[in-house]
Amino acid sequence: MDRFFDKLAPSYTFEIFPPKGNKSTEGTYGVIDSLVSFNPDLISVTYGAGGSSRDNTVEIASGIQNRYHVNGVAHLTCVGTTRAEIKAILDQLKANNVRNILALRGDLKDKSDLGDFHHASELIAFIHEEYGDDFDIFAACYPEKHPEAESVEQDLHYLKEKCSLGVKGLISQLFFDNDIFCSWRERARSMGITQPIIAGIMPITAAAQIPKVVEMCGASVPERVRRFVAAYGHHQGAVKEAGIAYATEQIIDLLARGVEGIHLYTMNQADTVRRIDSGIRSVLYTKRYEVRADG
Known about the structure:
By secondary structure, the protein is α/β, with parallel strands linked by helices. 47% of the residues lie in helices and 14% in strands. The protein has a single domain, classed as TIM Barrel (Alpha-Beta Barrel). The protein has helices at 26-35, 54-66, 83-95, 120-131, 152-163, 178-190, 209-217, 223-232, 236-256, 270-294; strands at 11-16, 42-45, 71-77, 100-104, 136-141, 169-172, 197-201, 261-265. It has an eight-stranded parallel β-barrel, surrounded by five helices. Helix 8 (223-232) runs antiparallel to helix 9 (236-256).
């Protein structure tokens, strides 16, 4: 099958998470069964803190690639690992024809947790040194800066450094304000960052998500989102409906602004993806139909 970067933008990609520990992967494959019906360009599989779901990540990414014939992306975090451990994982992925990696440092609770790699850039350099062009490497980017960065400018400086090491594409941290994302994208381009930037969107399906997201990544929450969460927070179903509508509008607006891809953080909720996908396609189909009719 073609590699991901042989395709034309805009791309349409999903993220799922594997079960923790020794739990069965059967439920995860049930989610994948549903997601592949939406014809994604790739599906990425997260990697638990400290590698807690490492084996499941490798297995599921391999299944996506070989069983479903969709580009599988394995998240790979390097915090607390050795070069030998990372090489063993990469060898396993290569043997299973998984050629897409999202290279991450991973969450750092204490500097003592660091292993042979201190930054994602060191992991990216290691992959290229050991494997050349065998893998297409994605890196993360942060429209509202990495929580540890002192400023957006500093964060963009480090991002450009990562990109210079051979990164093929960027997947953004989730955000809720398209203006912030597009302004940040312009700044990235002005600094010479040329890689495709895929916009990360997470639909809000529960009021409790908001404080968790803010704590995790510092994403700004627009007043409109705060209003519907406050108004409907006592009713789970109403928050989910409003969140799906908001995410759908976000994606349609981003596509109109010429983004190079949409990366949907699915939270393994295939029905939510179905609802969003239906809303997006109804607009895009109408657009295509009207263009043809006018022509």
